[in-house]
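Supplementary Methods, section 5.1.

A reviewer requested that the exact input to the structure prediction be made available. We therefore reproduce it here, unchanged from the version used in the analyses.
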Amino acid sequence: MGAAEPLRSVLWVKRRRCAVSLEPARALLRWWPSPGPGPDAPGADAFSVPVSEIITVEEADTHKKCHASGQWQKMGQPCAFTVHCVKRARRHRWKWAQVTFWSTDEQLCHLWLQTLRELLERLSSRPKHLLVFINPLGGKGQGKQIYERKVAPLFTLASITTEVIVTERANQAKETLCEVSMDKYDGVVCVGGDGMFSEVLHGLIERTQRSAGVDQNQFCAKLVPSPLRIGIIPAGSTDCVCYSTVGTNDAETSALHIVVGDSLSMDVSSVHHNNMLLRYSVSLLGYGFYGDLIEDSEKKRWMGPARYDFSGLKTFLSHHCYEGTVSFLPAQHTTGSPRDPKPCRSGCLVCRQSRQQLEQEQTLRGPPDSEKVEEWHVICGKFLAINATNMSCACPRSPRGLSPAAHLGDGTFDLILIRKCSRFNFLRFLLRHTNQYDQFDFSFVEVYRVKKFQFTSKSLDEEDHTLKDRGKQGLGQICCDNPASCCSAPRSSWNCDGEILHSSAIEVRVHCQLIQLFARGIEETPQQEPCS
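The structure derived from this sequence is encoded token-by-token as follows.
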């Protein structure tokens, strides 16, 4: 019997007699209790696991696990094989599970073992050799321990070989990716926070563009996607990228997504200033509140992750607003909207259709420069914050994120403008990030789905003569004249995925599905657990 033919037998799971079926056409392994003499039809108590979510299959040691009960003594010496697979848990978590099947028919066990292994060998998307970067200082400094305890055993079980580099300085991962040969690797894994992921991202994109002869500094350049996937093992302070693409910041879950070879295409934004590439962004590009927050927190790294809470409170009390001009090009190719009730999920139809529509639109339009004839929207004013999000930016503290309906691969980002308002109203807006209410349902908040935007800050010399002094430079920097209103300031910095950009005048464009992750997107609902 070959791997393409259905297989159905009666085997034992623990002390229960079960009917077990394998349908290669559906690539599904199923088993259910069958107390009768023959294999019954599956009922509500049936269990199943897709072949794509089986980690490995191995012959079990029956001498150690053989039951001493009269049941097994009557059956004789059993033969067994163990299926290592994915088990779904609560809140989008995956767990490593094992199911052992027994039988006294040794030939039957070997048939099952051979058939399952043949099916697993056909899964070409699974990585065989990975380059792993570990940031030992990220988050709470547990990156190395997390990898050794939760990730390395799974890689070994799946016969994945690795080359591990524990970084010793900033940008070491980026420099390594730009210099070493990557021909022997099937992907790159980063163990750390969003900063570590950003290093790997920049290294792979820069390497790919250099090999393709693409000038990254050209704003209209069409960037070439990297052929290597990136795996993220969360070990940072926020782990926004991992949480937004998997639905949890659990290391074991991320490791299992890598093992089974999941793939998720994701947009990347390029940030430019004066015909120079500043950085790439995949999550948050924030000016004003989030820019001031990250700039202040960088001065307090000695506080650890608590620095974000302290700097967040300080920035909120400062309540600075910034005057400038935002110009953006609305996205016409996507069917999605920033106010959609349904978020981006695994197998997202909006992302698939948007990419197809964008490719057709570019084919009809011709060269990128011809986009200049399209209508740009211009908005001037005073803003507490300007945020551009490629993804929801969800995290444990903000489960829905800054833009709950943002899509991972639709070739757009959501541009969120928070105009000048009172401290109380701004607090109401911030609190919406932690609950289920519509965070855009305020008169001072505007949100647009765009594919390009520019921002220019009004210089200090040109500001209105009524602007007040920024106040005392101590904790809070609260406006003394009117505590409830904004305090205008000359300019802020940009928070680009946790890194500071000091150039306030920037232009940004999104590159549709430029990179791939070892992920599948957040699944809609947890499926039935595969193990009894």
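The chain is about 25% helix and 30% strand. These observations are discussed further in the main text.
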